[in-house]
From TrEMBL:
Organism expressing this protein natively: Methylobacterium tarhaniae
UniProt cross-references to InterPro entries, sorted A to Z: FAD/NAD-bd_sf
SUPFAM superfamilies (alphabetical): FAD/NAD(P)-binding domain
UniProt protein name: FAD-dependent oxidoreductase
Amino acid sequence: MDRDGTIAIIGAGIAGAAAARRLSEAGRRAVVLDKGRGPGGRMATRRGPDSLRFDHGAQYFTARDPLFAALVEGWTARGVAAAWGEPSGGRPGRHVGTPGMSAPVRDLLDGLDVRCGRAVGRLVRDGRDWRLAEADGAALAEDAAFSAVLLTCPSPQSLALLAGAGHDLPGVAEVRYAPCWTLMLAHDGPPLRDGPVREDRDPDATIAWIAENGSKPGRQGGGTLVAHASPSWSRAHLECEAEDVAGRLVSALRDLMPLGDIRHRAAHRWRYAAVERAVGEPCLFVPGSGLGFAGDGCLGPRVEFAYLSGLALAERVLAEAA
């Protein structure tokens, strides 16, 4: 691998952002590409009508690892993140990005080369380098050949890219995800009776999580809810239309809490929402090929784990080039 070559990072979630920031600090050039309209991945915020905003992906993050905890402390001091509620029952405190969940990712990527709306469909080997292409073969990032490609998108998407390139990263195929349908709701009824969060761990429940989105620091407006359907319900309704899902989830919510007039409702499908089976390694990297994989699929379903995985992959790249 060319120790001075440009590195492509596919996926602008927190794993990709962590890798990009570490490589940049070490003097390496990285280009981050993502098919979405903006960075953040599953740390996402959706805009609705009348200035409504919903954190419809990851609801919060915790900081157990000292390295990540120090980063969160810095974010909090600069207003990039904030504590959400008080720790209880010996559980670590919840933190959120401010004013939206994607703020920490955007902070990590600040000043770096990030290209959103770029859907990588193929990896093409060009001598010792890699080039990126759309699924139909149209070139992406035409100005660069890449010495390494770091995959931080979910494993099914990473596997498709690897297969098209005729390469393998042992372990990627072992990752399993649970899907999740998310309901975003604005209503005129009273707030949750038992606090800003209601969680149901019953695997047969329709709704596993409800949060008063407006209770998070930096958010505006009451009467905004985010509800996550359980993995089993989401699997059973995975291919349903979003409007049909929204109606079903509103009906399920009415059985759990009073809802007033509904001002807005929308549903979003996350096919790869939460890791159910992880690799069990900080990252995956094949020396000499320039191919690597990082994300919560490596260590488990936490924002913190995704960050540490991206950081570990960047360190592997730097160690090989040393």
